[in-house]
Design brief:
Number of domains: 3
Distance between the termini: 88 Å
Mean pLDDT: 95
Structural class: alpha/beta
Radius of gyration: 26 Å
Number of strands: 14
Number of helices: 17
């Protein structure tokens, strides 16, 4: 991560510096995922067992986690681990509960009442990956808002381990979050099972959760099919951008960059700083800290396409950040809250030296399921609103139809929609007749 001086770069060089690693979204992947989805749709549980044996090398008698397996998973964790999961769940609920949508009732004109009410999505599927490492925190981030929204059917899929079971921490987290049905399924086949349903797996209306390129492609395919299931939002590999000035602690900055780099070799970490000296100090701290990391190969892969960018001022740093639209944005600058208004595009923001990105991943209460790969420019991070649907309601009295009916008639005539106008005029005529018949 040798420092690059932004103002000295050409427009093309600046663009290349912010380019993300290429996603594996080729025609071969698309076709192979489509084949898996079609097979699961046609063969149901038989396809799921065969694919699990082929891809995970595990023979499954039952696709669903049993009550005994839930109890065994709880016993495998010590009390410190169970308490940490419960604390994280409580904080997530505390932050997400106020997000439950409230009904809006507005009188827009005399006798005209308009409302916006919400209803939970009836059935949702939650996907918790377990590729490089199992992610019990994701079970909490998905399960808690789904429960708060009131989704009636909440199922979870997570890849099976070599021992034929789902990771114990994932199972305990799922139960703490209120998810009672978990299936030992991963990859594109899990997405297909939830989207279309099988003999064992219920069909859901919407699928949530991160995953690898196979999972991401499967979610995209079933989302395009009216008979499939909607997805939460498109996503790519994880990423973090740190904006730091001379006041920043280089060890803190290096640790934040490395914590995101260890997600995978396709992750990306960026540092934008106004201090050349800080950039050099962070680079040295990265070399020292990464030597003690067991996932060093993944870290090295991520650092290979990561950069340190030196700018003349913080205003430029925020312009670059908004252009990049990072999943995670960390502000290690003096008075970071004063700069928050400059942030237009980011999945989640972390203010000041004592706010590592790790707390957002686990236990501060915010959700870590976030748009990546620049999608933060047009998508928000996951929240309760993603698990509900809103619909509008309107109710008019006689006074109301007399007040706005003529407006509707005029607009309908402008559009040449005579039946629209007639539906209003019929009522206006009855209203006038009734009014005229009164003594």
């Amino acid at each position: 991560m040798e420092p690059q001086y932004w103002q000295q770069l050409s427009t093309e060089q600046q663009r290349d510096l912010l380019a993300r690693p290429a996603l594996k979204n080729d025609a071969a992947l698309t076709a192979r995922v489509a084949a898996i989805v079609a097979r699961v749709r046609a063969e149901g549980d038989a396809a799921l067992r065969a694919l699990t044996a082929e891809l995970d090398r595990v023979q499954l008698d039952s696709l669903e986690v049993s009550a005994a397996e839930f109890e065994a998973a709880e016993r495998l964790l010590n009390e410190k681990q169970r308490a940490a999961i419960r604390t994280a769940a409580a904080n997530i609920e505390t932050f997400h509960r106020p997000q439950v949508p409230q009904a809006i009732v507005v009188t827009t004109a005399k006798g005209v009442v308009c409302e916006r009410v919400s209803r939970p999505i009836e059935s949702v599927g939650l996907y918790v990956p377990a590729g490089n490492a199992p992610l019990p925190s994701t079970a909490l981030m998905l399960g808690v808002p789904a429960r708060l929204a009131g989704c009636g059917t909440r199922i979870l899929c997570s890849p099976v381990q070599a021992n034929g079971r789902v990771d114990a921490a994932v199972l305990y987290a799922a139960r703490v979050a209120g998810v009672e049905r978990v299936f030992k399924l991963g990859g594109a086949q899990a997405i297909a099972a939830m989207a279309y349903g099988t003999q064992s797996v219920p069909k859901v209306d919407k699928i949530f959760g991160p995953g690898n390129t196979w999972v991401t492609e499967a979610k995209a395919q079933v989302d395009r099919d009216p008979m499939g299931a909607a997805r939460d939002f498109p996503a790519g590999p994880s990423e973090v951008l740190v904006i730091a000035d001379a006041s920043a602690n280089p060890a803190f900055v290096a640790a934040d960059l490395l914590s995101q780099a260890e997600h995978g070799a396709d992750s990306q970490v960026l540092l934008i700083t106004t201090s050349r000296e800080l950039g050099r100090a962070v680079a040295a701290a990265i070399e020292t800290q990464k030597a003690r990391l067991p996932r060093r190969d993944l870290v090295e892969g991520a650092l290979a396409h990561s950069s340190t960018i030196v700018v003349d001022d913080l205003a430029t740093a925020f312009e670059i950040s908004n252009r990049y639209a990072p999943e995670h944005l960390i502000l290690q600058v003096e008075a970071p809250r004063e700069w928050l208004t400059r942030v237009r595009s980011a999945g989640s923001v972390f203010l000041g030296p004592w706010t590592p990105e790790s707390v957002g991943d686990y236990c501060s209460g915010t959700n870590h399921v976030l748009p990546t790969y620049g999608f933060a420019r047009r998508y928000s991070g996951l929240g309760v609103a993603d698990f509900v649907r809103a619909m509008t309601v309107q109710e008019l009295t006689v006074e109301g139809i007399e007040t706005i009916g003529p407006v509707a008639v005029t607009l309908a005539e402008l559009e040449g929609l005579d039946a629209h106008a007639w539906a209003v005029n019929e009522r206006l005529a009855v209203a006038r007749t009734a009014k005229g018949s009164k003594p």
